[in-house]
Structures are given as structure tokens and as C-alpha cells.
Amino acid sequence: MSPWPNPAQTVSLNYLPMRIFAVVPAAFVAFATLSVALTAAELPTWAFPVAPPNPPRAPAAPGTPPPARSPAAPVDETPKHVPNASVSLTNQQLKAHGPAVPDWHPEEHPAMPAIVNQGREPAVWACAFCHLPTGAGRPENASIAGLPVAYIKQQVLAFKNGDRPGAEPKRGPQNNMILIGKAATEDEAEAAAEYFAALKPQTFMKVVEAEMVPKTFVAGSILAKAPGGGMEPIGNRIIEVPVELDRFELRDSRTPYEVYVPVGSLKRGSELVATGGGKTQQCTICHGPALKGLGDVPRLAGRSPSYLMRQLYDVQNGTRTGASTALMKIVVANLTNDDMLALSAYISSLEP
Fold it and tell me: pTM here?
């Protein structure tokens, strides 16, 4: 029997655990039958950061000789360190296609299978390079520690089948996962899913309400504090930034994050989770009483608010589809961007 979901299940609800439907009240079933006209909300660019392209070079004047090549810089092999780590790593060991992924805290997890630790050239990156050896993930991707094996495999298949293109076509992490999903074998997906599902989820975010937030810039595919400092109004945004950008770039799985959310959004998010606010159903019906998952339905608690917002927006606007999102499409149909922001803010503040 294939370890992946049957492809036929990607177009039905049969793959979702039956016990979910056992707890769905009749009101939800009636709600699910409503035909809702959707209008595409404005893209929340704070959740989909993309670095601006490099400015084009001015053309050289006719007859100008080409610039002399600079000598190659010497390779920096100075050992790097992060707080409370039992190892030191060099720049060569921190590369995406090095012999193994950067692993600052090997005592925190079991031995990684080859696909997680090394990947497979040329198309399949090591899973732990982006999602980290502990599965903690980063704001530009997903925390996958402790997620169900079947759910992880289904998402790899969703990227492969074109069900998760994302609302921002220039986002590198999304495009990389599409390529990896297309190239990964069933055995590789199985090995990665079993490894990450066995890990305990962690969070290193501090979520606070604020009217003023640090000015930011796009660093790769995340927001980071502007080098010049300064503050600005938060507006209708969540600002999620690493406390130490250097530590983030060294891919330390314990990198702490500051998460600033609009004043009042935590209470609003809590109400939407608990009651639906007259717009949707309680999140706990499918995701469990503490939003820590139920059956093959994933955990939400303690995940990056940028990630959560992207998924809600993508499901609502049809840039995330497939079996696992069929019910979610109905659930998010009437939510505004502000509603989804409040949900993301509150859910990210919970213990995973």
C-alpha cells in the first residue's frame, strides 16, 4: 500500500478523520451549505514579504573598458557560535548544500534521516535546513514539529499537485516547496513526516499588543528591524521580527522573536476562536479544545502569525486548495483581513 494519501482523496472530504464530522453540529452543516460570494481582499503584504529587486546598473559609456575583476575573497572559516549551543559551526557548514544542515543543538532531537539532514541533489533540499532540525520552523515557512504523519505527507503532495501556489508568486519559500514536492519520492516524504511528527513543538515568540512598532525591512523572506532603528504606527499589521537577526541567519532553532500585534486583537481573536463571532465556526471543533490538533487535523497553537495569516488568506482566495482545505474554505468565507489578523495574533500567543 502506498504511504501517501490516495490521489482520489485530494478531491474529496473522505481523507479527513471521521470523528471530526461526528462533533460538527447541525448548525455547521447548515452553514456549510450556504453559497457565499467571495471578494478577494487586499493582499496583506506584511505576511507575504518579498525583497525588492536589485536596481538595474546604468549602462557603461561607449568605449569604456569592463571593470577589473576583484580578487576572490578568502573563505572565512572562523567558527561561529550561538547562545547555549554545544557546538560551533563554520560558514561552510552553514550552507544550504553543505554535507549536513546546521545543527546547533543536536541533543534536542533524535538522529535525522538523510532526507532531513542532507537532502538529495539537485532538487530536494534537506528539510531541516528550512524547517530546522527541531521542526520549529521560521516565519517564512512552517513549524511542523508534532504534526500528524498523514497531514505532513498530504501537504508535500499538495505542493506537488499545484494545490499550494500561494497568493504571492514571487515568494521564494513557497516556490522552493513546490519544486521539492515535485521531486521528492514517497519514501522521502514518509521518512521526513515520521521524523518531524515525533518531535515536541516549541515556540520562542513573545506576543505583545502595541500601537508603535520597530521600523522594518525585508530580509530574504521575513521582516527584520531596520538597521537605522526608529518606530512607526503598527496599523493593520502584525510585525514579527527576530530579536537578533544574526542569530536568525545562523539558523539557530532557538532564535527568539518579537511579535507585535494591534491593540485589542488578542481579545478579538480569542472571541472568534471561542464563538465564531457570528461570522464563522469555533476553531476548536476541528483543531481540538486547545487548538493543538485533532486526529489528522493540524495543531494551530503557537505557530507563526505570519504563517497563519498566509494560510487563512490563501484558503479564502483560492491559492490553497485540496482535501484538507475544503472545509476551511467555508469556515473563512466571511472573514475580513482584520478578522484573520486577530485570529493569527491570538492563536500564535498560545502554548503549542
Answer: 0.85
